[in-house]
Specification:
single chain; 197 residues; alpha/beta; Helicase, Ruva Protein, domain 3; Dna Topoisomerase Vi A Subunit, Chain: A, domain 2; 4-stranded parallel β-sheet; two-stranded antiparallel sheet; globular
Length: 197
């Protein structure tokens, strides 16, 4: 049905996370209908990102400067470190505006089924930072998925001997949610994490 070149474009787009056959087809036709100038701008953006972006040598966030802007910002609390799985988690926390400390990006989560263990994460680098710095608190901001819980448990056992206070993000009912739509695990964690008002 498709010209060979168009089929190849659809196949390449489909390799992206969250892009199925229909979405890949829509994107391919969008690209074909775009002006040559817009397509060249897209290609330059992709190439520029691939060529210029790298991991910060301190926190491992994605950056085009080293250290990244967050690590270089002296106005941030240097005694707090927030551990996240991926740079997109860091971005989500930054968007909230509720945290003003430093970060450490692990580069994934422990997932034995995918062949991804603790040695694949930036845990050694985290330990070096904790030993070298004067952090009063480390916040584990890791999603409560099966892989996230495995990673959190592993980190808590490993980091327990350190004198740094270890906390984790609270979880439970989201703001604006109806309780009758919440699953049992969410309700259980909501009761477990309750606090005085």
């Amino acid at each position: 049905m498709y010209a060979e070149t168009l089929l190849k474009l659809i196949e390449e787009l489909q390799k992206m996370p969250g892009i199925g056959p229909k979405s890949a087809q829509r994107l391919a036709f969008y690209i074909l209908q775009s002006s040559q100038k817009d397509v060249e701008a897209l290609l330059l953006s992709i190439k520029g990102a691939k060529d210029k972006l790298r991991h910060c040598s301190t926190c491992f966030n994605i950056t085009d400067t080293d250290p990244c802007k967050i690590c270089a910002d002296d106005s941030r609390d240097r005694e707090m470190i927030c551990v996240v799985a991926d740079p997109k988690d860091l971005v989500a926390i930054e968007r909230s505006g509720g945290y003003n400390g430093k970060y450490h990006v692990l580069g994934g989560l422990i997932s034995p089924l995918d062949g991804f263990g603790p040695d694949n994460l930036r845990i050694r680098e985290l330990l070096k930072r904790l030993e070298a710095g004067n952090f009063r608190e480390m916040i584990l901001a890791i999603s409560p998925t099966t892989e996230g819980e495995a990673t959190t448990i592993y980190l808590m056992k490993l980091l327990k001997p350190l004198e740094t206070r270890i906390t984790r993000l609270a979880y439970g009912l989201p703001i604006g949610a109806d309780m009758d739509y919440a699953d049992e695990a969410t309700l259980f964690k909501s009761f477990e994490g309750r606090r005085e008002v």
